[in-house]
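All the exercises in this workshop are built on plain-text protein records. A record pairs a protein's sequence with a compact description of its fold. Backbone structure tokens are a discrete shorthand for how the chain folds in space. Once this layout is familiar, the rest of the handout is easier to follow. As an example, a complete record with its sequence and its structure tokens follows.
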Amino acid sequence: GKMVNWCSLQDRVLEVIFSYLDVYDLRNCSLVCKNWYKYLNDENNDVWRLHCVRKLAEEALKSDLLSSVPTYKAKLRAFYHAWNPNDCSRNIYVKPNGFTLHRNPVAQSTDGARGKLGFRSGRHAWEVVWEGPLGTVAVIGIATRDAAVQCPGYVALLGSDEHSWGWNLVDNHLLHNGDSQGNYPQLNNAPKYQVGERIRVILDCDDNTLAFEKNYEFLGVAFRGLPDKQLYPSVSAVYGNTEVSMVYLGPPLDG
């Protein structure tokens, strides 16, 4: 029989085939030839759109929450990095939109959650939005797999040991090893977090630093000397029915 020239298969046919493959297979497909690579690198084509429609809740696709990740492929990537429903306190559930956690009203408990994927190399940015009241302690940052996701009392769980690093939005303190590592950002009378503001968390695994941005203003490096371990986006909360959203953005735009 005649050899089929796979690379010249019409885009329409490719689109249908690609839309049935999982993301891991698509990564391999993009290495087959220049045409496929170019096609799959178009982050807004129908393959990524179909994957988005299949995986993401309609509510998430239509919401303002994903406005920072404009392409279909970026939205899908964010979904694969979102809160892990199997790696959080039993007092927390992930809402149907896939990106927002809800802390149930449980007395005398501090409850945390981690993202589905951790990072050990490269640079990564994600946005965290505290959608409800902060309560007495509301901490955002990173943790290893060894950090606890639940403990009794109302405490700064994230940053309470050597396995986590956090910024308490309530009093603007940095926390690690159970100690305050000083005020952050380092400004006199730094403004307090207002519910609904987007905070950008920037983890640089090559530099071993963690930094934050608020309202697109870089606040400076918060932590240095992070260990060479998988580090996961994390939060801990104490307020009943509060909600926290997290959207993975990819590499920071400045580099």
Notes: The chain is about 20% helix and 35% strand. The chain has a mean pLDDT of 90. The CA atoms of residues 112 and 149 lie 4 Å apart.
